[in-house]
């Protein structure tokens, strides 16, 4: 099973900076997880066709959708659920 995270952000989004750091750390430690990054400004058409986005940032971890002010506990719990699916 493919482990995938989708991260949708905007260039000037201050909330996105935290998540970018989390994902960078994850990439350095978990080579079996694929992270797809989309920029809401530049990739708008593609995002609109694939995902229902209600807020920026949006983080889709497997089948869990997190949006807005995502706290670290929510993120870690979503990662645990992703790991359990393998």
Helical segment tally? Answer: 3
How would you describe the shape? globular
Output the CATH homologous superfamily.
Glutaredoxin
CATH structural fold name: Glutaredoxin
What's the average pLDDT? 89
Structural class: alpha+beta
Describe the fold and architecture.
- The protein is α+β, with helices and mostly antiparallel strands.
- The protein contains 3 helices and 4 strands; from the N terminus they run E-H-E-H-E-E-H.
- The chain has helices spanning 14-29, 44-50, 72-84; strands at 3-9, 33-39, 58-61, 64-67.
- A hairpin with a 2-residue loop joins strand 3 (58-61) and strand 4 (64-67).
- The chain is globular.
Nutshell version of this structure?
This protein has one domain: 3-Layer(aba) Sandwich (Glutaredoxin). Helices cover 42% and strands 26% of the residues.
List keywords for this structure.
3 helices; globular; 42% helix; Glutaredoxin; 4 strands; 4-stranded mixed beta sheet; 86 residues; alpha+beta; single chain
List the helices and strands and how they pair.
Layout: E1 3-9, H1 14-29, E2 33-39, H2 44-50, E3 58-61, E4 64-67, H3 72-84
Parallel strand pairs: 1-2
Antiparallel strand pairs: 1-3, 3-4
């Amino acid at each position: 099973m493919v482990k995938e995270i989708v991260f949708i952000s905007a260039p000037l989004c201050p909330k996105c900076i935290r998540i970018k750091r989390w994902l960078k750390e994850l990439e350095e430690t978990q080579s079996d997880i694929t992270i797809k990054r989309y920029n809401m400004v530049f990739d708008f058409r593609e995002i609109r066709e694939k995902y229902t986005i209600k807020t920026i940032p949006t983080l889709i971890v497997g089948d869990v959708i997190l949006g807005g002010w995502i706290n670290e506990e929510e993120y870690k719990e979503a990662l645990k659920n992703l790991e359990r699916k393998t």
